[in-house]
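Hey L., structure's done. Input below.
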Amino acid sequence: MDESEFVFELRTCRWAERRWPPDGGDRAVLVARQLGTKRRRWDTVVIEVDADAFARRADFGRRRLDGDMLGVVRHAPAEWEWYRDALPDPDYPWRYVRETIHEADEREILKVRKRGNRLEIKRRYEYPDWIRRIVAIENKPDLDASAARDLRPQLERDVALSLADEVWVATNATGETVEPALLESVPVEAGILTFDGHDAAVAWYPRTLDVDAPGTRILERPSGGKYDQSAARFEYVPPEEKAKKRLEIAERAYERGWRTYTRTMRPDCRHFELRREEALVLPYCDAKSCHQTARECSGRCSAFEPEPPAWRQKGWPIEGGPGNASKRLLESRRERYRPGQSASDAE
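Output:
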């Protein structure tokens, strides 16, 4: 199948949203794309959630809670208390904590009052333990020997750090008796998904990683050349740091999902469309007659043309034209497929 990694990534996200876990069962999941850390970004992220706790997470709004905000709302007391007594000592000045407290007050997710010269806080909602597992999927539609060699160091780092509970590689099925991905340099700890159109099969099951144990962050490793005698460099990552990073990743996934790709594209172009392909809606460029990538679809594109004003007159500027309609469609589907929501009329 001749397609870009971007389109394949959207197929993977849609499949995971409807079919996860691949071995059957019933698990509530939240799917996002292009998330991770500053050192590593995963193509597809599947967050297995506790559906009831996930519903309570909505009390804190649709916006993500960053690391500073999480430190405040998770430790906020049930009764009024001076914020310095209630919160653990930060590794940065307290004045920044006060700024976060005021922001939480503005977002109405924390109760705040002043008693004399003291700033007191009280929990408005209890932050739920909504994350069960995090699964990372690397998408490679054509996993030949060269692509596998390039991918192996990244997967080895994922396995060593064990930030995700499972690591997978998704690729297109070839129809061979033994899929080439099984013969390539993919770590045995990583699972392999083979896609045939919109359906996927498990070619290799992954090993569950110990996310509660210290991880190993590989900083540098020998190239393996004949004359390379350099030593590998690594550092240990404590479980507490991993747990904090996992929660931050999950919060970003909560805010973004995987249908937010129009934020980095130009749906206001007259050639931009959303086309239905079985159970998936994909962006399409009528000028180039193809499913464009996010990199191609920009204001620098030679075929870019703004929507004519006549397209936007009805309801302008609140509702807008076809571009805004595309955004609303994707947002409505995002909400419809959130865990705990009914998806019976989604398609």
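The CA atoms of residues 274 and 283 lie 5 Å apart. The chain has ten helices and 13 strands.

-- N.
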